[in-house]
């Protein structure tokens, strides 16, 4: 019997496999995000995406704009693509309706903008790494992956792995590698819709989580605007956070032509100067190598 997974595998590049894994794990990416993260040009990216679409590895949709016109193509995993990813990871095959459910979820989701924002944060890092030789995005975990029991807990503490469930829900986890410097971090992507007191309240959960993990990593608040960042930092000046926190404002970064890898981060209690993502290694308290290998 002809196996479509075996038939298509020989046509895939290493870059294709990275993309399929991202779509499987993170749901949806725009053509612009994919091009920036993985390809030397948008035209090259679009040609390859058309090939993957014809092979039925990815599916796509194009939301309409409220003021007319449409957005760029948004890509999600198709059923064959999901089966290829599962086979490559030696996992159980996905449900037969996996791709249909995922496609319906994102074409009708009220959280699409937020998910694209979170994913854009990480594809910006990947795009920066693609053009800078000494850095890389070593790991990228989704919100769902961060909630899995024991994913960050020390393996030598099996009772804690089973017992502790974090109260916070990071929008993502990443590992930034710059030369021999490792910076594990959590991301809170802000759309401007939550009260600042809610953002501050999340730090209590992070403090408990770090105590349970036995390690401390920076929490990055990627904020809607510079004005919102100033207001949040004003709150923290009165009640200093008890975990390492850095803030960045998207409108400031866009105006300055900077990405999250560059000097856009202001550490709470650090005087307001901007640091690069690699500089935040000073706030990492960790006696292990998060990549599982020597740096």
Automatic annotation (TrEMBL):
UniProt xrefs under InterPro entries: Replic_Relax (IPR025855)
Q: Which Pfam families match?
A: Replic_Relax
- Protein name as catalogued: Replication-relaxation
Q: What's the source species for this entry?
A: Micromonospora matsumotoense
């Amino acid at each position: 019997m002809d196996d479509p997974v075996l038939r298509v595998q020989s046509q895939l590049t290493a870059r294709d496999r990275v993309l399929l894994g991202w779509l499987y794990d993170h749901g949806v990416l725009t053509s612009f995000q994919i091009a920036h993260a993985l390809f030397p040009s948008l035209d090259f990216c679009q040609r390859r995406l058309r090939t993957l679409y014809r092979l039925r590895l990815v599916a796509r949709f194009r939301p309409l704009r409220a003021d007319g016109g449409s957005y760029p193509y948004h890509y999600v995993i198709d059923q064959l693509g999901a089966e290829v990813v599962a086979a490559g990871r030696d996992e159980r095959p996905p449900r037969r309706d996996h791709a249909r459910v995922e496609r319906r979820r994102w074409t009708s989701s009220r959280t699409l903008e937020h998910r694209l924002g979170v994913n854009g944060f990480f594809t910006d890092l990947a795009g920066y790494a693609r053009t800078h030789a000494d850095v890389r995005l070593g790991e990228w975990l989704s919100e769902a992956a961060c909630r899995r029991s024991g994913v960050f807990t020390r393996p030598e503490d099996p009772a804690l792995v089973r017992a502790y469930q974090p109260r916070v829900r990071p929008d993502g986890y990443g590992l930034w590698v710059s030369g021999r410097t490792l910076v594990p971090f959590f991301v809170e992507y802000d759309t401007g819709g939550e009260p600042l007191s809610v953002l501050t309240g999340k730090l209590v959960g992070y403090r408990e989580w770090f105590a349970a993990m036995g390690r401390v990593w920076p929490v990055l608040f990627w904020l809607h605007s510079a004005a919102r960042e100033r207001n949040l930092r004003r709150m923290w000046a009165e009640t200093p956070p008890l975990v390492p926190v850095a803030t960045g404002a998207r409108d400031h970064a866009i105006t300055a032509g900077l990405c999250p890898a560059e000097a856009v981060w202001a550490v709470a209690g650090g005087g307001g100067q901007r640091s690069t993502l690699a500089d935040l290694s000073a706030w990492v308290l960790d006696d292990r190598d998060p990549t599982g290998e020597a740096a």
